[in-house]
Amino acid sequence: MLEPIDAHGTVVAPGDKVRIPRLPEWLLHDLPAQEVARLRDLEGSVMQVLEIDEFGYLWFGTNDQGRWFCLRPEEVEVVAAT
């Protein structure tokens, strides 16, 4: 299980707002070009962590769509905690 610690050593929890500096290649490598472009648009943005799964991955999306994609905690930067 991944530790819920961001790139700067800050604890990450569901509901926290985090910056996504860049998306990792492991997430993008098998996706269609349109989905890669949609995800790349999120680089540098701030998103809210919807949940942390049983393996420690942070899930992002919207309340009406639910989970869309996940990242490892060390791939984000906490900007505000709830």
Number of domains: 1
Count of individual beta strands: 6
Helix percent band:
10-25%
Q: Strand pairing plus helix content: what structural class?
A: alpha+beta
Cross-sheet strand order for the largest sheet = 2-1-6
Q: From N to C, what is the helix and strand string?
A: EHHEEEEE
- Span between termini: 23 Å
Q: Strand fraction band?
A: 25-35%
Radius of gyration: 12 Å
Describe the protein in words.
This protein has 82 residues and is an alpha+beta fold. The protein has one domain. 15% of the residues lie in helices and 28% in strands.
Which characteristics define this entry?
alpha+beta, 15% helix, three-stranded antiparallel sheet, 82 residues
Structure described in brief:
The protein has one domain (17-80).
Write the layout of secondary structure elements.
Blueprint: E1 17-19, H1 25-28, H2 33-40, E2 46-48, E3 51-52, E4 58-62, E5 66-71, E6 77-80
Antiparallel strand pairs: 1-2, 1-6, 3-4, 4-5
